[in-house]
Amino acid sequence: MKKIISTIAVFGIFFTGNAIAADCPKDLPTIEPGKLTMSINATIPPRQYIDDSGNLQGLHPDLGNEIAKRLCLEPAYMNVEFAVQIPGLATKRWDMVNTGMYYKPERAQIMRMVPYVVNALALVVERGNPMGVTGYESLAGEPVATEIAGFADNLIRTINDEQVANGMESMDIKAFNTFAEAFAALGAGQVKAVFGPDAVAAYYAERGSFDVGASGLNPGLPSSFGFDGKTGQRLSQAVAKVLRDMVEDGTYDRLMSSYGATQIQFWDDYVGDVAVYYNPE
Q1: Most buried residue, 34, 114, 173, 245, by most Cβ within 10 Å?
Q2: pLDDT tens across 14-36, in order?
């Protein structure tokens, strides 16, 4: 299922006379002139979600809206599952992936990536943590949910393979289309834990639905904006420049701090500035 979200309707923003400035990039190659179309999977509060009024909320849309404003473009979103987002760049369904996609060197071989925030992962469990989950080993032989095709899905399978090689019982890993579905399965007792971003874990724990069994797992993994490898050079460089400007004027710090997010300069591989990563084979 996909949903097109126009921020004219959702956020009631757009251009004032001051927004269209002389330093706006000219003729950026977007799929629809005057718009920055971004894919997002709005099922991961507090980073990206639809609130009770039907509005798109979270750190990632806030960043996307600010970037679009500074590029003098109208922000628009297509709410789709993660599995279709990278292929959608090549088929020109959207200009930019803005869904908290993890940076990986192998991804940077096929697409242009702009890392912007550092993440960690967590195991979310039933209220009260009845199994006493403290880490991956606690879930040997148990059903564990995550979101399909993402970094967490690949990582939990790698960890499970390592545990099995060491003589432990295999987890029963269940990959769902969205984290919302994964947490619904946890609430229904179909799985014993959900493996996903620690910010999501904290969000649900604060609302009393679940508890966090373990957090801060595999720290240092950055989320990145994604752009088509072949055609995304100008747009990716323009977005990286906007982020550098936001760092300089304090907007980046204010946004990251408001969501309790770890800034990109704490990434172990940070090169001293926001940059585009692209290393085609």
Answers
A1: 114
A2: 443 344 455 788 889 999 999 99
